[in-house]
Amino acid sequence: MTTSETSTLIPSFAPWLNRTEAQSVLDELGLPRYRSEPWKYTNPQPLIDEIANFVEVDGDTITSLDDEIEVCSLSSPRAKSLAKTKLGSSVEREQYSPMLALNLVNLTGGFLIRAEPNDRSSTPLVTIEPAMNRCERFIVIVESGATLQLEETCDGGNRVFECLIEEGATLIHKRFQKPSETVEYGHICVQVGTNSSYRLDQFSTGAALRRNEIVVDIQGEGARVSVEGGWRLMDQTHVDSQISVNHLAPRSESGMKFHGVVGGRSRAVFNGRIHIARDAQHTSAHLTNKNILTSDTAEVYTKPELEIYADDVACSHGATSGQLDEDQLLYMRTRGISKNRSREMLLKGFLNEVVTDTAGSRLLGVSNTAQP
Amino acid sequence: MSLLDISRLVVSVDDKEILKGLDLQVNPGEVHAIMGPNGSGKSTLTNALAGRDGYTIKHGQALFDSTDLTELEPEERSHAGLFLAFQYPVEIPGVTNMEFLKTSVDSHREIKGLQELTAVEFMRNLRNLAKRLELNPDFLKRGVNESFSGGEKKRNEILQMLCLNPRLALLDETDSGLDIDALQIVAKGINEFRTSTNAVVLVTHYQRLLNYITPDFVHVLIEGRIAKSGDATLALELETKGYGWLNGS
Q1: What span, in angstroms and rounded, lies between the C-alpha atoms of A326 and A247?
Q2: Can you spell out the DSSP letters for B167-204?
Q3: What is the average pLDDT value for chain A, to the nearest integer?
Q4: B180: domain CATH number?
C-alpha cells in the first residue's frame, strides 16, 4: 500500500473537490424532505442531523495488502490529478443530489484506490472498515484489464463511492452491514465500461436507520452487472435501498436480486429501477425483490421499476412480500421437523438463494453452523 | 388393535362437508388401496390425516395406534410413525435435500433419545437408498424438489419414506405423473418397504399401480363415504366398469 499523504480533516480536506460548488447546489436545491418521492418511506432528517455530530477520528478505515493497488488520500495532489484525468467532470456530479453535495461539503476524509492489471491469479483485495462518525468519499478506478475486490464493513457514518471500471476490467464490491444502533448513509455510483464486469453483494442487518443508494451506469457494450443481496431485520430497525441500473449501451446484461426477511417492528424499503436507453438494444435485464414478513408489525415497501426505450430487449421485474409459505411449512412438519425449526430452515433457505459467501451467510445468520 | 382406526369421520373444508362418515381400519402388515372418482374426498382424507390447517374434523375420530390424531401436531404425527407422501411434493429452494433429509431423520432420532447421525453414517445409508430408487446422488445437493421432474419428485417421496421407516405410509396419488419405468421403481420401493409390522395405504385414481403392488383391501370412496370394499379383484372390476355403478349405493 502506498499512502501519499495522511488525511487533513474538515474543513480543508481535498479542496479540489470543490466544496463551494457543492454548497451552492445545496443552497439552490435545499435539503431532501421527508415524503418527497425518493424519501417517501424514510425520513432523511436523522441522516442530515448525524453529520453535525461527526468528529475528527484518528486512523484510516482502509487496508490493502497488495502492491498492485495504489491507495492515496484524496487530499493528495496525486489523487487530484488521477481523478481529474480519469473521471473528468464526474467528480462534480454533486449538483444532481443534495445528499451527495452534503457528503462533499462535510467531508472528513477519503481515498483514491487504483487497480492496475497484473499477472496474479487471485483478485487483489482492499478492505474498508466502518465509517463511524466520518464523512468519507472513495474514488475507485479499475484500469483496463484489471480486477479488484472491495470488502466493506458498514456501521454508521456517511460514505460515498465513485467507481470507474474501464474496458475489460472487473470490480467486485462486497458490503457487509452489521447489526447496529447507528444512523448510516451510503452511496455508490459506478460507471461500467465496455466488456467490463461489476458485481455488488450487499448483506444488511438492521440499524436505527440505514440508507443505501446505488446507481450503476452501463456505458460500454457487452458489460455485465450483478447487484444482489439480502436483509434480515428485527426490532425497530430500518433499511432503505434505492438501486438504479441504467443501460446506456447495447448488448449488456444486468441482474438485480434481493431477498429480505423482515420481523419485529422493522421496516424495509426497496426501490429497484432498470432504465434502458433507446440505443441499448439487445439488453438483458432482470430485477426481483422478495420479502417474508415474520411479524404483524413489520413493514415492507417495495417497488420494482422498468423503463424501456429500446425495442429489442429481454427484461423482467417483480416484487413480492408475504408470509412463510404454509405448504412448505406443512411439508417439513410432516417429516417430523418442529414448527420453529421448519420456519428457521425456510427463512435460511430463502436467504440462501441470494447469499453466495460465508461472510454474508454468517452476517444474515444462515450459515450451517449458526444456531437458529 | 388397528394401527389406524377411523370411525364415522366427518371432515369439512370451508364449512362444506367433504367426508361424511368414513370408516377405515388398517392393521399391521396390510396394504389398502383407496380409489374413487374426482371430488370423492380422497385428498381431504389425506390432508386431514396429515394435519393441514382448514381441514376440520367435525364428528367421529381418527386414532393412530390408539392416539387421537387431532391431539397431535403434524410433526408429532410423523414422530408417532405416520408418513404422508404428497400428491404434489413441495419445492423448497435454498434448502438442500441433504439438509432437509438429515434434519428430518435427526428429529426422529432425537424423539427416540438417539444421537444425531454423523454425516458419514447418514450419507452411507442415503446413497444406498438413492441407488435403489435410481436417483442420481447429485440430487442431494439441489434444493428440495427444486426443478425435479414429476418422476423424481415422487421417487424423492419414497426415499423419504424409506429414510424415516414409518409404521403407516399414506401415499397420495404417488403413481400420478409417472411413466412406466418410474412407476415400477416406485412400486419396487414400496414393496421392499412392506413388512408384517407396518402398513401402507395407497390413494389412487387408477388400477395401474395395483398391477405392481397387490393390495389386501380395495375401498371405493364416493361422496365422502366408503361405498364398497373388497379384495384386489375389486380394482380390476372398477377398471372395466368405472365408478358409475357404485353411485348412490
Answers
A1: 39
A2: SEEEEESTTTT--HHHHHHHHHHHHHH--SS-EEEEEE
A3: 89
A4: 3.40.50.300
pLDDT tens-place string over residues A252-297: 999 999 999 999 999 999 999 999 999 999 999 999 999 999 999 9
What amino acid occupies position B23? D
Grid cell at residue B207: 388400477
Give per-residue pLDDT as tens, A230-246: 999 999 999 999 999 99
Nearest Cα to Cα of residue A135 among A5, A4, A7: A7
Q: Is A369 on the interface with B (CB under 8 A)?
A: no
Contacts of B50 in chain A (CB under 8 A): 330, 334
Cβ <8 Å between B89 and A333: no
Q: In what order do the strands lie in the sheet with A62-64?
A: A62-64, A125-128, A147-154, A170-177, A197-205, A224-233, A253-262, A284-293, A314-322
pLDDT tens sequence across B153-164? 999 999 999 999
In Å, what is the CA distance from B180 to each residue of B56, B151, B160, B183?
37, 10, 21, 5
Q: Which of B73, B92, B111 lies closest to A333 in CB terms?
A: B73
Strands A197-205 and A170-177: parallel
**In the predicted model, is pLDDT for residue A372 greater than 50?**
no
Report strand pairing: B217-222 vs B225-230: antiparallel
pLDDT per position as a tens digit, B65-76: 999 998 999 999
- How far apart are the C-alpha atoms of A308 and A94, rounded to whole Å? 26
Look up the ipTM and state it.
0.95
| Domains in chain B, number | 1
